[in-house]
């Protein structure tokens, strides 16, 4: 396993402005489309409390067909979703006191090669998580948000082009 606090080595794409929660959910939907052909992707979601990580995850999951409640896994730590033939595991690792606690979450049945992982607060499991396919950083800018994509330039370009159409 590699250092999970690191983002992929590629430079960040220019920041994408997100005006409100609807735009943040649209970014999640665009990310789902950009990763449609990558069932084993690991997505890191960085940002302060209230930055919109769960809102983005909600848009992602809705785009893949989740129709029930999409809640923050703050207290449950993991929320698995079976969406057709695909499994998505949404994790919020904020409450981990030690990176080694990650091993107690039962994630061994959700292999990254077969499951798409959305990981909020990945720095809480630094050194034990698989390396991310893409890392997103959400920042508050007044009432709006700013999204920065690190990693695979193709994912960043696809995300940006899809958002330009949606927003």
TrEMBL record:
GO terms for cellular component: cytoplasm. It comes from the Bacteria. Pfam families: TsaE. GO terms for molecular function: ATP binding; metal ion binding. Keywords: ATP-binding, Cytoplasm, Magnesium, Metal-binding, Nucleotide-binding, tRNA processing. InterPro entries: P-loop_NTPase (IPR027417), T6A_TsaE (IPR003442). The keyword Metal-binding applies. One of its GO terms (biological process) is tRNA threonylcarbamoyladenosine modification. It is found in: Cytoplasm. Belongs to the TsaE family. This is tRNA threonylcarbamoyladenosine biosynthesis protein TsaE. The lineage of its organism: Bacteria, Pseudomonadati, Pseudomonadota, Gammaproteobacteria, Nevskiales.
